[in-house]
Specification:
Elements (H helix, E strand, L loop, with lengths): L3 H13 L7 H13 L3 H12 L5 H13 L3 H13 L8 H8 L1 H9 L5 H15 L3 H13 L3 H17 L3 H13 L5 H11 L3 H14 L4 H8 L4 H14 L4 H13 L3 H12 L5 H13 L3 H14 L4 E2 L4 E2 H8 L8 H13 L3 H14 L4 H13 L3 H14 L3 H14 L3 H14 L3 H12 L5 H16 L4 H17 L3 H13 L5 H11 L3 H14 L4 H7 L5 H14 L5 H12 L3 H12 L5 H13 L3 H14 L4 H18 L1
Antiparallel strand pairs: 1-2
Amino acid sequence: GISVEGMRAAEIFSRTSRLDNFPPNVVLELLKLANRFCCDELKSACDSHLACLVNNVDEAMLLIEYGLEEAAYLLVAACLQVFLRELPSSMHNPNVIKIFCSVEGRERLASLGHASFALYFFLSQIAMEDDMKSNTTVMLLERLVECAVENWEKQLAYHQLGVVMLERKEYKDAQRWFNAAVEAGHLYSLVGVARSKFKRDHRYSAYKIINSLISDHTATGWMHQERSLYCSGKEKLLDLDTATELDPTLTFPYKFRAVALVEENQFGAAISELNKILGFKASPDCLEMRAWISIGKEDYEGALKDIRALLTLEPNFMMFNWKIHADHMVELLRPLAHQRSQADCWMQLFDHWSSVDDIGSLAVVHDMLANDPGNSLLRFRQSLLLLRLNCQKAAMRSLRLARNHSKLKHERLVYEGWILYDTGHREEALAKAEESISQQRSFEAFFLKAYALADSTLDPKSSDYVIQLLEEALRCPSDALRKGQALNNLGSVYVDCDKLDLAADCYTNALNIKHTRAHQGLARVYHLKNQRKAAYDEMTKLIEKAQNNASAYEKRSEYCDREMAQSDLSLATQLDPLRTYPYRYRAAVLMDDHKEHEAIDELSKVISFKPDLQLLHLRAAFYDSMGEGASAVKDCEAALCIDPGHADTLDLYHKAREPNATDQK
């Protein structure tokens, strides 16, 4: 039945259509009443009102049961939103697990249209990151399978379940799910089938699967890497060398070769092998292995540096097959390494920063934070270094810690501004910078504002304003590391305004305080002044000083003849195969020499491990010029998956499709 309060509320609602003054229990009564007597207006009002009351997990847990029972779409959606907002911690709540993971829970959500493939895919990804082997992960993936309707959804769900079962060492079930994915058309799941067979001691069977894969399809690096797991001796090494040749970004071949060299007591060669990949990819497992080799060499300083760097990337990293926490290794190695004061660390950081040694800089900052964990300035520097290493997730973590540890409001506003900027909220970031400046004029606030404003096509008036902001920043107290960056940025704006002498002064001043990257800006100034030899020499200075110098070789190639440029770009590719410009340059040269197929091969080489928008667009353009419209369309479609609004690719796509449409007619 319904209470007296409920009847009174129903009567008041019939006159006012409002629920504002009623407590939640009365509104719940009205919701039941509305359902019983099919009163859509009252039900909708109750649903909306209750949805607005959901603020935390406890309230959501209480109200979602009512929502599911009474088919209140908005109320259930609001509760789900709270659960999702509190991930991954909410997934440890047994009641939340019951709603998401049980068959009954999924069916109840489905009855209201809330049990989508996208939802369960998202939840399963979170669960896999949290604990891949947990029963919760398995149950979520089973629900994902139940939600899968389209063929691609089934392929993905089956494959993911296979991966988790493999991780749980349930190899028979893993093989079953991988086979299901293969039958649904997921070719990559053949690797899972092979792994499962290998784990069940069917090594030759696994080898045959991957061998057939290589024979039947265009071979890629990962295929040869996979096959290497199922063979030995020279055959294994040959596969790993081929894997590196086809995809130099795969870490396993480098690590295997490094271990083989260590077994031959060639420690230096082993470290050189790992340095090849650490030069362009901050890989925690490669840092761990290099630390292990350094310990073998009794280079405890080097080992400590690498462990500190990997702890910055992954604070909970477990070393040596999950036997020891990396933090504990730091404690063990610290007495064996040189002890430095905080002042010594600042000097060391300055040296590493100047020599463009980002991993070394990370290690120093980690050491400094061990003595001063609440130092927001150091956390901010850490985030900048991580961004330079292309570790966005770790960078954002450091930036949030900087914000959380900041004791000064104007400083906290700056960090909030950077968080907003890095997540694509430029206008909000500018507002934070302005609010910070209104409270206290600081280098970082002016720098943030200038940086955010410069991130657009600047007209002369805007450029003048950015210049003023950077000049204001330089008047504020800061250290040489940041002032060097500000001078470098100021020089860049002057170049864009065609004020080359002022730009040269900025770059020279930056170099005077050892901001090594300013060599590149100064080289650009020389180039614009038609002093090509001076530009080349300036880039040579950068190459000599910088530890990570792939970009310097790439840039220097612009200031020399074709033959020397080819040499520099080959070195750039060798040092950092992820840089796309060298491939594009070489492909363009080949096209100019009417070697169309070689040009296509050059682009295909890098696209196989880095499907970059510009590379796909260029290959599509080459195909189009060769009259291969179908291939051009295919590459355009791939490029548009990366950026659906890319104007040049859209134009090329429509152009390439026209002949095809005519042919079909």
